[in-house]
Amino acid sequence: MEVEFTARQVKISRALRAQAEEGMERIGRMLGRGAHASIIFGAQRHLQIVELTVQARLQKIAATGKADTLESALRQAIAHAEQQARRYRDRKLVNKRLPKVEKILTAPPVARPKACISPQPEEDGAAAPRTAVKTRASIAIHSFPVSSTVVEPHVVKNGEAIAIRPMTIEEAVKDAEFRDRDLLIFRNLSGAVFVLHRRRDGQMELVEIP
Predict the structure, then answer these.
(1) What is the pLDDT of residues 6-26, one digit of tens each?
(2) Which residue of 89, 160, 202, 208 has the smallest Cβ count within 10 Å?
(3) CB atoms within 10 A of CB 71
């Protein structure tokens, strides 16, 4: 950091200059490059005064130290300036770590139909304005017809469901159970035709064919 020294009625020793440059170097690391400082050494009666000013890019620091000796006054001024530089550095770091506000995407405004004014002659010949509103054209939406798939029945010819010899109802039920069939067509001893089938609830139902 570039440091400018000013002495008013005092003498700046080499040790005092080295002490000031060391303190300014620490402050310069906190404030960044481009900062420069000016230090004024003075005396007022028996009191030694050091006025320190640091100008950074976006921050200005001013500190003052008063003591019996210039070394103590310079130490106070540097400590005060370091405290201000530390607060500035911490505040800068916090601002950098804050997340950026994400942009909220909004839907574009819906364009409304504009009204146009067209003249319309009246009975007395004067043109009177007429407001006509443009209506939006309807759009036909074509969709494919939904058709259910028709499954053709699979027909299997079977002659085992017909009993050849006449039998009673009890014999037909036993024969259906023995064959493990849900349908049986048979004739009784008098020649009447019956259909014996098993319902969904498991019971056997007898249908007489007239």
Answers:
(1) 988 888 899 999 998 898 888
(2) 202
(3) 17
